[in-house]
Each structure stands twice: as C-alpha cells, then as structure tokens.
From TrEMBL:
Transmembrane segments: none annotated. NCBIfam families: chitin_NgcE. Belongs to the bacterial solute-binding protein 1 family. It comes from Streptomyces synnematoformans. The keyword Transmembrane does not apply. Pfam families: SBP_bac_1. Keywords: Signal, Transport. PANTHER family: ARABINOSE-BINDING PROTEIN-RELATED (PTHR43649), SN-GLYCEROL-3-PHOSPHATE-BINDING PERIPLASMIC PROTEIN UGPB (PTHR43649:SF31). It is found in: Cell envelope. This is N-acetylglucosamine/diacetylchitobiose ABC transporter substrate-binding protein. The keyword Hydrolase does not apply.
Length: 472
C-alpha cells in the first residue's frame, strides 16, 4: 500500500456524522408488527442475567454466524469468535457472497442462523423482514453495558447516526452497522500527478480530464455494470449538491415527480456524456465490481465510483505506489446548491439477528463483543475502513485510501448527505432503479427515458401497500 499517516482525535467526524446521519424515519405502513418487546426478545435460548452476563446468554447454547464474504472478507470476526467462545459456547461460522440465496429458505422455515451479516448484492430486504416480524429488536443490546466501560451503555459508545441507520419508523433498532463508509469517485493520485492532471471540481473539468486521458489511451471511467448500484455513489450525492438535500429527501419520501427534478435530469445527462463521448472503458457494462476494480488498479481507467471498502477489496491488485485517493463528485457548475466538499457517508455493513433464531441473546452478545474498541480497531487495521465505535481509529495508521476518506469528512464540515432511498426501499433500488441507470450508461436509454422510467418505478412503489413507507 502507499504512504500512511497518523490518525488522531476526530471531533469533526463526530459532528459531521451526527449532521449527516441522524434522520429518523416515521413509518407509513407495515404489513405486520415487528417482533420483540421494549427490553427483551421472546424466542431462543436464555440464561440467567448477571452483571457479567447482562443479556442473559445460555452458556450451553451454540451460536451460528453467517458472514458476507465481500470487500471486508471474513477474517475480522475471528477474534470476536474466540472471545465469545471463552465465555460461552462454540460458534459455527459460515460465509457466502449470496446472503439471500443462502438463508431466505431458512428464515421462512424458522431455522435461521443466529447472526447474519446482511450485506452485498443479495442482502435481504430489511423493511420486508421487519414487516414479517422476522428480525429481533436490538434495544437490549443498545441498553446493555459496554464491555470497555460498564458505566456506559453500548449505545453510548457508538458514533452518532449508527443507531438511527438501524431504525425504521420507531425507536426499535433492527440492524447494527459496524463500518462507516465514505462514497465518492476513486483514483490514483500518482496517475494524475504523472500526467499533470488535477482532480476535477466541476463536470466540465471532468470531461476535459477524460478527453486528455483518451489521448493517452486511458479511459476516463470504469464501473461495474453487473452491480450498477455503484453508480449511485457518484450520482446521488451529485444530485444533492446540485439541487440541495431537499431533492434527495423528496426522492426518499416517494414524492410525485421527485425524480423529474431539474437536478436529477442534469446529473444523469452529465454522466451520460461519459458514454456519449467514449470516455468509459469498453466492457465496463458487463463487469462485476472486482473486474472493474482490477482494470482500474491496472491503470486502464482514471476514475471509478465506489465506497471506502475498495482499498481492502482491491489490495491484491493495487501497485504499492498507486496512492489510492477518493474525492467528492464534481459540481455541475457554480450555481449548485451545495459546495464541492459535500459528500455522502454513512454507517453500513449491517448485522441482523433473526427473531426466530435459536440463540437470539447469544447473537446480541456476539455483537456486543464486536462493538468494543479493540474489536473495532482490529477491524479498521485489517480492512482499511472506519468502524462505528467512537474513537476506535485513534492512533492507527492507514493506507492512502482511508486517509483520504477521513480527510474528506474533515473537509465536508456540515455538508453531509444521507440518501435513504437505497436502504428504505432496497428491492426497488437494487432490482429496478439501478438497472435503468446501468442501461443509460451503456447507451441503451437516454437520460430523459431513464428519468421517466425511474419515476414510474418510484410511483409504483408509492402505490404498493405491501411496501413499508418512511418519511424524513
């Protein structure tokens, strides 16, 4: 990896996260009440609650854990498994890249794993699971004493916004995020420096840099056409920058014609120019994320929209002097509502505990072990990502990618965006909207056609009573 830098106290991160993340939705409709009481879940093995066992774990009950084997891998949980097994029973650990395929049948049959890292392209639809009463309430975990400092609750130790990202319309928490991700446009600073180019702060500058790169036989952009939701890491924050956060709020709220706002049209037209001018690496539309990332680290393309896990996920193909860097999406022009430094960053990499798990309390206890500073710092060191435990990054050294991501959060000040459409309506977003964006980037739909199609998709979701609705 490239050069590293010392990371100290991050008061600005805390403030910015609070501003960017705390947006608690109010529920519109749920098809059924979620399982779990105010301070206890009903099912699963139970033990005696004591000072050392505040969640009442049955010490003889085994625990089953299923991890998403994606950008963060699975090694980061090994210390937590060892720590849990010292106090309680054996942990059976499994991994997959296809969470839904692996566990959907088991969820329906009432025989799910006790803890699930519900991430990746096949992550299960959390609002749907809540509506079916399939998820345990994590309030007991949040109210439990922290392992680091029993005078504090677990909730007290988390970065602002972490709990809120697990809430869907009430004060219960249905998922626990362990990572804090920064989204943006990633590139090799060395490649830019070698050619005398600067990162573009406006879209005209972006097109100009891409034109220069094309002359050198380098594509301006690449992306994953197989998982086109990655395009949102550039498009959504740019929409908010151009039109203001209220445009993203209107999209989140499923308001009529929200996707037809001028800022949405402008941003889609801007990205379409990359295709129209031949600045996208040929083949991108058919590649998986790892394939596009490899082409990028090989220097075949300048820019790629991605999240801060990319540094770890592509480490095996990244040259030592690559100087991986992330910057915000460019502004459209000087009339934009928000400054260039505006970014999208949020708590992510969610864990859930099924309500029908055999060891619900054990699942919550396992997460309590994950939410210690030691575990969080180990996670950060291993996978080059910030964790959601407050202060866990202090004193650590990171690669250039995460260092630049932290710098973005500092520079953003109060200019943070947190679009909720992708996690409030995950099926609508992941299975419908993003493929329209992907078609547009391949030239199979014009920006105008894409806007109309996406608006119809959003309208259909708004009318569908089986989909839970949320509002800012």
């Amino acid at each position: 990896m490239g050069s590293t830098s010392e990371v100290g106290r991050r008061d600005l991160v805390k403030r910015a996260m609070a501003l960017g993340l705390i947006s608690v939705p109010t529920i519109g409709a749920l098809s059924a009440c979620a399982s779990g009481g105010d301070d206890d879940n009903d099912g699963g093995a139970k033990g005696e609650k004591t000072e050392k066992n505040p969640l009442g774990v049955d010490k003889n009950a085994p625990l089953e854990l299923l991890i998403f084997d994606g950008g963060f891998g699975t090694q980061y949980v090994e210390d937590d498994v060892a720590a849990y097994e010292k106090k309680y029973a054996k942990v059976k650990t499994g991994s997959t890249v296809k969470i839904q395929s692996k566990v959907q049948g088991r969820m329906a049959a009432g025989d799910p794993p006790d803890v699930i890292n519900n991430s990746g392209d096949e992550a299960m639809d959390v609002p749907a699971l809540i509506g079916q009463g399939q998820l345990a309430d994590m309030t007991p975990l949040l109210n439990a004493p922290s392992i680091d400092d029993p005078s504090k609750t677990v909730a007290d130790t988390l970065r602002p916004g972490t709990v809120e990202m697990g809430q869907y319309g009430d004060e219960k928490c249905y998922r626990m995020n362990i990572a804090y991700s920064v989204f943006g446009i990633w590139y090799s600073q060395k490649m830019l420096d070698d050619h005398g180019w600067e990162y573009p702060t406006t879209w005209d500058d972006m097109l100009a840099v891409c034109a220069e790169a094309k002359k050198e036989g380098i594509a301006g952009w690449t992306y994953t056409g197989v998982y086109p939701q990655y395009l949102g890491f550039s498009m959504l924050p740019m929409i908010g920058k151009v039109g203001g956060a209220e445009v993203l709020d209107a999209i989140d709220n499923l308001e009529p014609n929200a996707w037809k706002h001028d800022s949405v049209k402008s941003v889609l037209e801007a990205h379409y120019e990359l295709h129209a001018k031949g600045y996208i690496l040929k083949g991108s539309g058919g590649w998986k994320h790892t394939e596009s990332q490899t082409k990028w680290t090989e220097g075949k393309a300048l820019f790629i929209p991605n999240g801060s896990w990319v540094e770890n996920e592509s480490k095996d193909t990244t040259p030592p002097d690559f100087q991986m860097t992330v910057s915000p999406s460019p502004n459209l022009d000087g009339s934009d509502a928000m400054p260039f430094e505006t970014i999208w960053a949020q708590a992510g990499e969610p864990y859930i505990v099924p309500a029908k798990a055999k060891n619900v309390n054990g699942g919550l206890e396992f997460l309590r072990h994950m939410l210690t500073k030691k575990s969080a710092a180990g996670f950060s060191k291993l996978v080059s990502s910030l964790a959601c435990v407050e202060g866990s990054e202090e004193g650590l050294q990171f690669g250039t990618g995460l260092t630049s991501a932290i710098g973005l959060m500092d520079a953003a000040g109060e200019n943070f965006l947190n679009p909720r459409f992708p996690d409030w309506y995950p099926t609508t977003w992941r299975e419908h909207v993003v493929f329209v964006l992907g078609d547009m980037m391949k030239g199979d739909a014009s920006p105008g056609e894409a806007v109309n199609k996406i608006q119809q998709i959003a309208d259909d979701a708004a009318k569908d009573d089986s989909i839970a609705k949320y509002k800012h």
